[in-house]
Amino acid sequence: MPFSLQLPSEYGYVLTVASASFFVNTYHFVLSARARTGSGLKYPIPYATEEQAAKDPKAFKFNCAQRAHGNFVENVTPFLGALLIAGLRFPTASAACGAAWVLGRVWYAAGYTARGPAGRRGGFTISAFSDLALKVMAMWTGVQMVLESA
Fold this sequence. Notes:
The chain is mainly alpha-helical. The protein has helices at 11-39, 50-55, 57-86, 91-115, 121-149. Helices cover 79% and strands 0% of the residues. The N and C termini lie close together (11 Å). One of its GO terms (molecular function) is glutathione peroxidase activity.
């Protein structure tokens, strides 16, 4: 059965937010690179050892920056998928939730890198709730499309 898809006129907001998330990755790269330089750890070492991090606050900060970046990489693909799918039916709400996610992830990165694991909580909370909303909207978009085609 043929299927046509029309993008809502507000879908540009969704694409703008999706594009903004690319710069969050760059921000993580900068934080990790600065922390690596400060710690003196050379490539290809991905993390300071537990002993190094316990003795050297700069090595600990590098580990926090690396982990924050790793967490972003783990979460950006599902975020983008949910954002792009949900935006088909709910472009403005999706863009708003997506913008909250992006801002939450910046806060998460800055907090985790500067203050360690406790510094990530505020950004995590914002990004987690907005991510959940996007996933619910994405699922509902799929359900609506299935019901319309039946």
